[in-house]
Amino acid sequence: MPNHSQLSAEAVLQELASTEAGLPQAEAEHRLAQYGPNRLQAQAPINHWRLFFNQFKSFIVYILLVATVLAAITSEYVDAAIILLILLANAGIGYWQELSAQKSLQALKQLDTGQAKVYRDGQLRTLGAEELVPGDVVMVEAGDKIPADARLLTANRLKVGEASLTGESVPVDKTTDALPGDLPIADRINCVYAATNVADGSGKAVVVATGMTTEMGKIAAMLHEGETELTPLQLRLEAFGRNLGYVVLGICALMVAVFVVEQVVQHTFTWSGLLQICLLAVSLAVAAVPEGLPAVVTIALSIGVKKLLAKKALVKKLASVETLGSCNIICSDKTGTLTQNQMTVTDAWSLAGESQLAGIGYQPEGEVSGQVAPLLFQIGALCNNASLYQKENEWQITGDPMEAALLVSAQKAGADITGFQRLAELPFDSTRKRMSVAVQYGEDTLLLVKGAPNVLLEQCDKVWQEEAARPMDEAAKAQITQQVDSYATQAKRVLGFAYKPLPSAEATALDPDDESQLIFVGLQALIDPPRPEVTDAVRRAQAAGIRLMMITGDYLETAQAIGEQIGITGLAIDGPGLDALSDDELAQALANGTNLFARVTPAHKMRIVAALKKQQNVVAMTGDGVNDAPALQKADIGVAVGSGTDVAKEAADFVLMDDSFVHIVNAIEEGRGIYDNIQKAILHLLTGNLSEVIVVVMAVVLGWPLPLTAIMLLWINLVTDGMPALALAMDPHGPGIMERKPLPLNTGILPRELLIFLVILGVLSGGVAIALFVWYNGHITSSPQIGTARTIVFQFIALAEMVILFAIRAYFRTPTFTNYWVWGAVGGTIALQAGLMYSPVSSFFDIVPLGLSDLGILGGSTVVFAAVVWGVMLLLRAFHARASTPQSKISRPSTQ
Asked: In the prediction, which pLDDT does 44 show?
């Protein structure tokens, strides 16, 4: 509503061709046909086919699909069928997981427009809010949800909670006066907005926008326009898949080229020979590509989803689990996320002394220290329209949260309010900035007043001191003003309290003139306090190298005070200041440590997130309000809290089942652990694949018979590689995982030190396998020991994979006996290898039973290999521990 706040109520009615009596029914129906229903655009239903085929969007999967086709063309039907089944199973797991999350949120995505009290043909009716049109005049009262954007015509102590839209933690006092200038939404106090809630009072307003033209609708439109971006994990896996594909294709092409050149030079080239080498190239491609990797990644992420659900975090998309582990900046909303969204009286002051009130929220328990006039708390409880009650062991309120906080402070202080009878009320309004009630207590009639201290002080000529009213002098005024300023510097909201005796005749018809010659009693200071667990969670996040930023619609002083309490510090800027900055200046401000943004709009939040992402940051955005939704979608990962709006939950990647900020930090820890496990699995799979490639390529180059057949290669990849890799997905993370810096966005899935470890392990394993093959078979094609040689190589590769598995876990400092799945996978693999060798199916795999002497050589070779590998692992780990600077430790997996 760009201009309606600047116009008078009469001018707005004239512009909309309406009156305070509302629209005629016929005109309303005409406008409904013109503007459409008052609702947001419906969300598209779940596309099951798209959701399923999205699981195949991976370069590694593309390589495996090509390998499947080639295997089928070359009659390797068993290989083709097994690879295809793996891919389908992997896609099924991802599909069902994401479908489950989508269905869990479907109810949250529905906008409940509810009912509206609207004037039609001069009569007040209750209609579905969808039927509202611009020009309708609606009545709103305490407890109502505002049905559409509207300009106020009347306001009777009307207060509206707008935290979901603006981030303002305290209900806004509304007025009907025209306002100067083009103010931001949070300051248009003569307007009300769809989906906000009436906290107190009542009012009448003319609808100026409905459906997608409301402020909420504009935000929803921004969400629809947003593009889905790949997560850091998906980007790294895509890059890894492409690089692996190029390497595999290069090796295969080189092997075919070497064969062709050799055959041409020797004049022995035949097309059948070329076909044979192409079949071998397909086998090599199958050996080089880790078929189990997509399943390992999916299962690792699925396990993370279950762990997070147990920690009250619902994940909408699998890849989002790891993204939080990669984030290096969290942009957090304040209200309801870092704070409780519950006003609390923390201090009370009078000339008799000062008190601090312990306890937070609306639970009326907490020690009151110091000495303050009891009358101060009595006025706060009696000059009050809120109520406090218990429901299911939870303290609930109705009415203004600030007034509810005064009820709580009175109960904590033990203020006695029995025997007081209210006679009349003079409601709060934005001009007087105070509220008064007349009460009867025995034979006395009293006027009790609360309001803005600076305004109230002007109406006082006496002050309550030492249980008596004394004349107000300049020294007392200065003392009171100084205390108000002191609370204000702490970003606390301060209320003043006063009273005076009232003649009984005046008690039933109060007017503003009665609010004079008052006796000033004292002050109460309130704040929306930080959540108790937030400070520790902030420390944990900062220790993990994560930059924390607060982005709120509340006032700058409040943001700075809360930030100082919980540990989010740095430069601060408000919305108008942000508007004055160019994009380059904003980037510089962020680089200079600006971490607090106040009085911001949804467009500001989008701009901040975009600037941070442009600087190659992985950004997490938390929030609960409609105003947070576009930024939640724009960020690399959006986290909506449980009490937040449906729109925010729809835009987010995570939905916390409650509002605790600590769950976000727990999710980061879980994400890092998952990323470590994926690295372990990739390292394990590729180490085995490298040793297989070395063995096969060496045999081809030297003209030897193949030490491993295609079916052996597939078995190794699926069983001796696959089962342990899947078990690694269930590893717990090691200690100190939250003491590392986040991974830079351009870091590969395997950093350099892990690639070095991979190559050394693969070369060692492949070298021992070749040595064993030479020992048993040499390069004599017709040797009768070819079966034994292949069996030895086949079994050694499998055992070497088990050794490498434990070496990798030790390199990552994972406690040895913390994952029974790993031990089960190792035991199961060894049992399968033995059963395969001594069963009738051994002939299908071209292997033979080994005798005791052969088993002795196999066992001895494995022990020697294990000793060398362990020594290499310890040396590399020690080298990296000494050589790593704090910056280089960012990508180091060990957690010392």
From this structure: 60
